[in-house]
TrEMBL record, chain A:
A GO molecular-function descriptor: enzyme regulator activity
Keywords: Proteasome
GO terms under cellular component: proteasome regulatory particle, lid subcomplex
Domain PCI stretches: 270-450
GO biological process, any: regulation of protein catabolic process
Stretches assigned to coiled coil: none
Protein name as it appears in the record: 26S proteasome non-ATPase regulatory subunit
UniProtKB/TrEMBL annotation, chain B:
Domain of life where this protein originates: Eukaryota
Family, per entry: Belongs to the proteasome subunit S1 family.
26S proteasome regulatory subunit RPN2 C-terminal domain boundaries: 774-886
Organism this protein belongs to: Apiotrichum porosum
Any single biological process term in GO: proteasome-mediated ubiquitin-dependent protein catabolic process
Record InterPro entries: 26S_Psome_Rpn2, ARM-like, ARM-type_fold, Proteasome/cyclosome_rpt, PSMD1_RPN2_N, RPN2_C
Protein name per Swiss-Prot or TrEMBL: 26S proteasome regulatory subunit RPN2
Amino acid sequence: MTTTPAKDKETAVVETKAEEPKLEAAPVLTVEEEILTNIMLIGRAVATIEPRFTTRVLRTLTTLRKKLTRKALKEVLDRAFPKGSKTGQQLIASSLFALIPEAADEGMDVDAAPAAAADGTVAPVASTSKKYTPPVDSSNGDLIPEGVVYLRLLVLLAALDAGKVVEAGEFALETVEMVQAANRRTMDQIAAKIYFYLARAYELQDRLAELRPTLLAVRQTAKLRKDEVLEITVINLLLRSYLQSNLYDQADKLLSKIETPPSSNSAQTARWLFYVARLRAVQLNYAEAADHLLTAIRRAPKDEVAPGFVQIIHKFYIVTEMLTGRIPDRTMFRRPVLQQALLPYFQIVQAVRIGDVAAFQRAFTTHEQAFLADSTHFLILRLRHFVIRTALRTITLAYSRISLRDVCLKLGLDSEEDTEYIVAKAIKDRVIDATIDHKGGFMQSKVKKDLYETDEPQQQLAQRLKYALAMHNEALQGMRFAANVHRKDLETAADARERDREIAQLIQETEDDLDEL
Amino acid sequence: MPVATVTTSAAGSLALLKDEDRDVRVYALQYLLSIVPQFWAEISEELPFIESLADPQFSELPVESRPLAALLCSKVFFYLGERDEAVEFALRAGAAFEKEPYAEFKETIIAGCIDRAIADTNAGQTVDTRLEEIVDGVIRSGSTDGAKLAIGLALSLRRLSLIEGIYNASRASSEASSSRTSATGTLHDESLLRYILAETIGGAAGSDAWPDSFRRDLLQLLLKLFQLTTPTDYNSVTQLWVQLDDAAACGDGVVDLLETGGDHGHLEAYQIAFDVTDMAAQSFLERMRARIEERGWGPTGTKGTEEERTDLEEILNGSRIAELYINFLKKHNQTDMSILKVTKDSLEDRYSIYHSAITFTNAYAACGTTSDRFLRDNLDFLGRASNWAKFSATAALGLIHRGSYINGVRDLKPYLPGGSAPSKFSEGGALFALGLIYTGRKEGAEKELRKGLSEVNDPIVQHGAALGLGVSALATGDEDIYDELKNMLFQDNATSSEAAGYAMGLVNIGQPSERVLDEMISYAGETQHEKIVRGVVIGVALIMYGKRHAAAEVLQKFTTSNNAILRYGGMFVYALAYVGTGDNKVIKQLLHFAVSDVNDDVRRAAVIALGFVLFRNHTQVPRVVQLLAESYNPHVRHGATLALGISCAGTGLEAAIDLLEPMTSDPVDFVRQGAYIALAMILIQQTEAQAPKVTQIREMFAKVVTDKHEDPMARFGASLAQGIIDAGGRNMTISLATRAGTPDMKAIVGMVLFVQFWYWYPLAHFLGLTFSPTATIALDGKLRIPKVDFVSWAKPTIFDYPSTAKPVTEEKKKKAKAAVLSTTAKAQARAKTKKAEQGDAMETDDKPEAASTATAPKEKAKAEPAQSIVHNMSRITPSQLPFITGPYDPITPPPSTSTPAALVYPKKGRYLPVRSVGDSAAFAADKQADGRARVAWSGKVLILADSAPESAEGEYIELDESLWPRNVPTEVTAPAGVAAGVGAAAAGAESVPAAGASAADWNGEIPPPFEFEFED
């Protein structure tokens, strides 16, 4: 088990995107009101078959999760269902619900306080916001299944927060069965969340591997039903599970046999890129790994929403970037959310940059535990060679000819013979441009060409342009255009025409009058 | 073999698969099959090897295990998302696949099998027997409620034997069988057959891709199955006869019913005869009559009574129904004369375009009503007609007297060549008018028309004669007439030869012969006159009517031509050859031409053609033409308006109206023109309750017509629109399909020629062919019209006539709005705030007023009864039909009370219909069944069985004899005053509220033929 508090946060938070500022600005709703509004939105999504509304609801899940209390949940469950429905009461009576603690810690008290204060003013709030009417499933007169599953998701979250992972896992399995039985396309997005937290509950119990066959089956079903969100969610869970058990081969085969999932859900896409990058890094394909991580960084949610995730991808990015022979930008380490977390890596980068083998070793031993926790340990081990190489490079730049002995001393290597081997390997790998004079026991550098004489700058520019254009295209594809907006222009055009005609008419009439005069 | 509980790789089993021992391999295979859901990604690396194991030529595995290898391949491909490969291997696995549990894998593979079988069928390849087995299994397992699905599948696979099998296996639902008293043996579910029939005719189930031979075989099978049912569903059988073009069988069927069917058979025969006249082409009817004559039931035959024979003959030659319609249209004429008057007064008729506009508006509005009152009232207007406007004005008489088979020649006598009017234009117009009166009845005026064609050597008269001859000999394929027209064509006169081109097409509609096509197409290449080329290519398009794939050669010739007019014609070949099929390939082609041709006319025609091809899937049309309606090219936009109008005519489709409304303020005049006309077509007979925008749009027409600064083209369009929306005294609708759902050839042809008005205004008269009366007429066995009532189970206002416009008072010149200076505005604002400050007292004053106004409308809105009574021989619009039940004995309307009368369900009366008319249960069922389910009755003429023939004579509605003098030879020119008073009696006996002043004025007295001395 390699999870740390930071990673917990990452798992929980990356899921959702930043809440829209508009929503934050909206008048403060009590938690109950907010949930009920959400259920109504889900009802509208079902009625109009428009997934947009569900997306909006799920976007607020993170903020809502922090505010969930047993009291609020109970009230929602009391009110959300149409009269005569027993589903809500069954949920309240369920064993899991009983385990959710009453406003346990302080943070919850703070949240609960305004809610309690608002109790007196519930009526005015209700009258200003739309009155709640439960969206009803016509077949059985109960709340629509999407609504039920959403409520179950909230209960599940509350239980996870309370640390009741075993019970939460059972509850999630039960919910998954409900989802499968309902088999409704309007439920897909919520279902993806349920699967995610099911996996989360299992992972916290260290049983994620048990879930693999289920997840594989779910992936197949999702693919057949073209349920893209669920598909990418499940693939991410599978990759996570494989990587956790070091089954890199399985992960690679899975990846090579499926098509790249469409980027409809940016949080999950970022996740997918992260896992793929980790796999590639293991496979020594650092360039691709770094590319994926860079995209993941750009795709990732805002710092304050998912700090854990942002930190971990930066850690991996820094390491893979160095493995490709580049030194990461210093500004990266100054970002408030990263400053503290990246400190160990900062030291490593500094060592690599100047090629100080001793400093590297020092930093490595001091922070070994942190690297182990981040699962970057093995990658940093591989970095050691890079430190030496970088040092070699600076040496070749500084000296046109230097004896191998001096090199050995400068690099702090064990023997002169070793040094010769290392230098030879560096030359062969084209890290440095030099020759070894074995008889004289020295290394002769060649004069370096001016970089700007080559086509390298052009290639760099082309690469950046390509990236920017791809991003632009993706952004365009991601935008929604309201239908028939151009109609308004037509209307105004018609008005303008009408005005022209009136003027023409007026002119003609005045002319007629003039003629008569 | 790893026996660990958690397997983390399939590598071990894969290695075992390559073991030397066969048994080990089989074991590995079986184990792999059990873990494939988890390790498919790994196994897929070894796919080539597993594929070779499945190969029958490869002996690495024992024979019995090879299917297992195939199954493994199939599963791996399934997980990889390669459905086609997965299907292929599943087929090879055979029995092993069938043993699979029914889950996602099997479901997907079976779906894949079905898709592949359908694709193979459509590509014309023979379907793999293994595929066939699986698909058959699916069809057979289709339970009874899925029978329709199974039928649909069988249709897609074009398997007649399966269709028959499904039908024979089906059981009629319990309600249906209990209502049938003659339950001998098992009853099959007839609704399945009707479903197939509707799909076949409606062209919705991809039937456009069917080869003609399969369609024929299918119809033949349906006919066979329908004839086995008891009691026979003659409505469907009649449709099949018409679809199969089997006039002889139809004639035999009618005669058999007359001879052996007893009383009921007698009625059934009459009903079939009426239905056939509604559905079938003229040539079909002629062959049928010939057959009946052969069997001795012709007018001069020996079988049956003379009365029966003449009745049958009169039904089949269309004169019976024409007589009924002309009576209906005259008696219920609701033309709003004030609209016409305003239009006439505001359009300056010294301009030819406005003169024509008024002529057409009047002709449409009075179509078939025989009311020439407008002309009589406005003789000065007629006097200002010049040249071709005169031609149109005279031809308009043809529309006004449409279907007046007895009086037609008499009415036009003064204008015909040799009559009292000396103008060539009016002579030509009169000949065209004759043709319009005797549409599809060439014997009516053949003599006069031929005389006009051959004896008068004047291109203008010949023009009218050719058009008249063409439309009266519609689809007869008459060789003599064709040859005569051909001679005229070869004279190469722009005026007369153009008309000859159209007429040659009209005569040979849907009957292409190599000779005819050769002559026409080669002539189109020879002549220098564009008008003639256009006439000929449209003629060719008419000949290719409904020929689908048989038109390919002509299409190839036309659409690839360098000559834009030929390509223009090519678009109409598409429109007519594939009319109503909704063929996707054709739509693609037309869209291609609509956006890429270099010629505006061709592009416009291509878009219009879309309307024809799609008219049966009219709800799709707004979506298809939406982008075209916003094209930068005004011709394309114009085409889009007409395409919408043509396809959605009479439906009031909201999406179409929404698309057209902004186009009424288009910057280009002719786009507006098209939009007005299209809106009128769509909103014909729509009430405000059905389409809320109708009032507003009517007002808009009036506004455009009266607006002097509006462009002439737009005013022309708005004027026509006024005529169209109130066509036939508000008693006619436009529909390109008959009520039985078959394409109405006459209407389609009329519409195609109408859209040629772009080049030649007189052709606008052809729109008259698309109008069909919306009357419901119930007749008894002796073809009398008993007084019976129907009940319409909807609020009366939903289907009522629109209220007559108030006579317009002298329009006062509006004062120009005084410009509001900013200071004034400020002062007003100040005053307002002051008022508000004074506030309270005033507000209290206002309150009681407001309260009273609030209560007033409540009192006004009288509770409307939930149903209305419809008498025999009165208007029932197509959309009203599903709400109709009956007939009942005459009903006294319940006293109007403030509370809505409870739904009283009257008992069945003395007369019982031969065809079932929807009862309320059927009505409810229909409402859900997306409107496709039709009442078994075509909705026009309904034959009633008299359940008490011995009792006293019932009351009958009498017909106006002046409109249809019997026993008077047509040669008699002036039967004036013969039947004075009869009509008045009829009107008195009729309990319909007086049908408007215009009709009343002319009732009771037969006016002399309308005469006007045109000056030359």
